[in-house]
């Protein structure tokens, strides 16, 4: 589980998933868009191939229709059209007249070849078997047309254009190339004068080179329901499924015009179908689906490979980046494990291999933190040492024989006088006093508890001095929870009692007050005693300042519970706690009776 909970893993997985999602969101619509375009372009390419064949067929049919009309309309001699010459050739028995007619028709057919430049041969057949051609190599007679299936098929029509395919010229063995034959009956409703045939080379209609480049492609040309040409060598050039598909297309388009219909049959073929607008010709190209969409499949494979490669590269980069970014954290953890407060030890740092400003700043901050931590711990140790010193000084001062003797004497005297309430009060205050002063659980305490301890001390001192000692406590309720070092007020109050009495019968009043000024707290301890001379005041302040200097440079201090040094100890611990925000003042009161000690610090440490 540590692997999944590591920052490196979470960072890597999170940003990898984000990158993958962004790549998919960007690439998927792009892929769909390009896929649709490629599919349309691919279909358009095959459709264009079929359209070219169909357009060439339309062009040849139109040329054939023009040539046929010239036979009806163009005069050879004496305003007589070519079909009349065919009628005369069929009815005349005169050899010379027939010879002239044949010569005129031959010249006319030769002239027609210039109108139909793509024609290999233009031939006219009479019903009696005469053959007139633009070629000198052709025969002049073929015998009765009933001997030839092709001529019989033409004779059975009513003048519509017929199209057939022949692997070679059937009338001239020298023409050894495949041809398409356009033919029709002339004057079918009158004398049925003869038949017209125009042969065009197959490659002039069908671009076999282009078709051969399409693997598995099959081209079929239909006239009506009959197939007249197929690039397939199988039976009739069509499979049963292809013929059923063709018949379905014909039924669909029986009542409407569909110049361009695309459909697929089966699961493996795709059909491109176009029909002639005037004639009953149909061009159908059948291509395997895998061939039609080969480019689309290639694009899909390349796109998926590119997307996977992009994702793989992005994931790898984020893995490396996540290691680079989390490496300083691991180094920081290791540095924290090795950190030492010994000044002689070299402090660990972090390697900034990639020269990143952030790592440099973290490294510098880490070193600064280490230094501050060391200083803070040193201050804490020094503060704790001073606090313990103050505690032991206080303990030593308060358990001296005079203090105990006096307190126990008062308790004995009260007991002998059967003043049980006073005995109880004395015992309770003395017990609380020693419990508070002996306790070492925490070096800091709230001002409320410090005031309570000071009151216990004052009550004990009040019993000792009987009616000569009075005190007042004035504390702002806002400062009851103020945190201060332990045992800072009692030494100051003790100092006021010890040095305030003048030995006369005059009493002494000690006032402890705490209040706020702006963003600071102020604690004052003042008395109405004899005061302090200017020389002695200067010496006390000098001792305090000297003590503070020694305290800031060393954790050790002198035994300073008497002669003003208890005051210095309290000042020192407050200085440790509040740093430069703490100030103090020791001075005589304005009326020259007594001393005032004023402490000031921030409300927020």
TrEMBL record:
Coarse class of the protein's main subcellular location: membrane
Membrane topology: Multi-pass membrane protein
Localization per Swiss-Prot or TrEMBL: Cell membrane
Coiled coil: none
Any Pfam family matching the protein: His_kinase
UniProt keywords, alphabetically: Cell membrane, Kinase, Membrane, Phosphoprotein, Transferase, Transmembrane, Transmembrane helix
SMART domains: HAMP
InterPro entries listed in its UniProt record: Bact_2-comp_sensor_kinase, HAMP_dom, HATPase_C_sf, HATPase_dom, Sig_transdc_His_kin_internal
Listed PANTHER family: SENSOR HISTIDINE KINASE YPDA
Name of the protein this chain belongs to: Histidine kinase
Native source organism of the sequence: Cohnella hashimotonis
């Amino acid at each position: 589980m540590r692997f999944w909970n590591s920052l490196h893993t979470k960072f890597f997985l999170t940003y990898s998933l984000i990158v993958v999602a962004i790549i998919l969101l960007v690439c998927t619509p792009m892929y769909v868009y390009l896929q649709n375009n490629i599919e349309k372009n691919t279909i358009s390419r095959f459709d264009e191939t079929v359209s070219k064949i169909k357009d060439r067929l339309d062009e040849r049919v139109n040329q054939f229709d023009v040539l046929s009309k010239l036979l009806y309309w163009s005069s050879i001699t004496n305003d007589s059209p070519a079909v009349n010459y065919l009628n005369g050739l069929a009815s005349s028995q005169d050899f010379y007249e027939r010879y002239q007619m044949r010569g005129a028709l031959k010249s006319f057919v030769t002239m027609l070849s210039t109108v139909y430049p793509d024609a290999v041969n233009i031939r006219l057949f009479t019903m009696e078997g005469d053959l007139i051609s633009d070629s000198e190599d052709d025969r002049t007679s073929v015998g009765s047309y009933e001997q030839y299936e092709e001529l019989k098929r033409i004779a059975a029509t009513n003048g519509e254009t017929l199209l057939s395919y022949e692997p070679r010229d059937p009338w001239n063995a020298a023409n050894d190339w495949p041809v398409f034959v356009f033919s029709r009956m002339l004057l079918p409703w009158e004398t049925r004068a003869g038949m017209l045939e125009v042969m065009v080379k197959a490659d002039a209609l069908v671009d076999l080179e282009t078709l051969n480049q399409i693997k598995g492609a099959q081209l079929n040309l239909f006239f009506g329901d009959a197939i007249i040409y197929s690039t397939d060598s199988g039976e009739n050039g069509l499979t049963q499924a292809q013929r059923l598909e063709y018949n379905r297309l014909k039924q669909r388009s029986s009542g409407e015009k569909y110049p361009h219909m695309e459909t697929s049959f089966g699961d493996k073929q795709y059909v491109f179908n176009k029909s002639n607008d005037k004639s009953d010709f149909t061009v159908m190209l059948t291509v395997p689906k895998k061939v039609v969409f080969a480019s689309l499949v290639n694009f899909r494979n390349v796109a998926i490979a590119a997307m996977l490669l992009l994702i793989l590269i992005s994931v790898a980069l984020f893995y490396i980046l996540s290691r680079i970014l989390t490496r300083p954290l691991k180094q920081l953890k290791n540095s924290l494990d090795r950190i030492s407060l010994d000044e002689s030890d070299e402090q660990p740092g972090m390697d900034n291999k990639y020269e990143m400003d952030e790592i440099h700043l973290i490294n510098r901050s880490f070193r600064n933190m280490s230094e501050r931590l060391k200083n803070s711990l040193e201050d804490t140790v020094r503060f704790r040492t001073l606090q313990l010193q103050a505690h032991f000084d206080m303990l030593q001062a308060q358990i001296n024989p005079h203090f105990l003797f006096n307190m126990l004497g008062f308790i004995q005297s009260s007991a002998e006088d059967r003043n049980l309430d006073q005995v109880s009060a004395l015992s309770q205050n003395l017990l609380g006093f020693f419990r508070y002063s002996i306790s070492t659980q925490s070096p800091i305490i709230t001002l409320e508890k410090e005031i309570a301890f000071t009151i216990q001390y004052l009550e004990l001192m009040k019993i000792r001095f009987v009616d000569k000692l009075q005190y007042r406590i004035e504390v702002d309720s806002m400062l009851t929870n103020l945190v201060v070092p332990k045992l800072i007020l009692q030494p100051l109050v003790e100092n006021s009692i010890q040095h305030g009495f003048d030995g006369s019968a005059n009493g002494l009043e000690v006032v402890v007050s705490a209040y706020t000024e702006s963003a600071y707290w102020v604690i004052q301890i003042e008395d109405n005693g004899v005061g302090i001379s200017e020389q002695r005041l200067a010496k006390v302040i000098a001792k305090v300042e000297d003590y503070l200097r020694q305290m800031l440079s060393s954790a050790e201090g002198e035994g300073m519970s008497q002669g003003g040094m208890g005051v210095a100890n309290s000042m020192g611990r407050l200085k440790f706690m509040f740093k430069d925000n703490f100030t103090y003042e020791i001075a005589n009161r304005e009326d020259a009776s007594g001393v005032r000690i004023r402490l000031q610090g921030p409300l927020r440490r």
